[in-house]
Amino acid sequence: MPELEQVLKEWNDNWGRAMPGYVVEFYTLTSDLGDERRILWTPILDDLREDERLYNLIASGIGWTETPAA
Fold first, then answer.
1. How far, CA to CA in Å, does 51 sit from each of 21, 31, 60, 69?
2. How far apart are CA 44 and CA 32, in angstroms?
3. Rounded Cα gap, residues 6 and 38, in angstroms
4. Between the N and C ends of the chain, which has fewer C-beta atoms within 10 Å?
5. How many other C-beta atoms lie within 10 A of the C-beta of residue 14?
């Protein structure tokens, strides 16, 4: 989980918005971490709220059905 957290932070800070497909693939590749990993994805998706297209692309790609926090 610490490694996943670091990768997500780096993705979000540096490349994320230009490479959403990679983060969706990464979510799939980390399935062995189970549902606990979703805790780390919440801040990423909340940060994308202003970009509805990108949020919807990533959220649908990872099966996220929750509405981001207001």
1. 15, 26, 14, 14
2. 20
3. 14
4. C
5. 10
Nearest one of 13, 14, 11 to 25, comparing CA atoms: 11
The yes-or-no verdict on residue 69 having pLDDT over 60 is no
Per-residue pLDDT reduced to its tens digit, 10-68 = 888 886 677 888 888 989 999 999 988 888 888 888 888 888 898 999 899 888 876 55
For residue 6, count other CB atoms closer than 10 A to its CB.
11
Instruction: Name residue, tokens 């940060």.
Output: 47
This prediction's pTM: 0.73
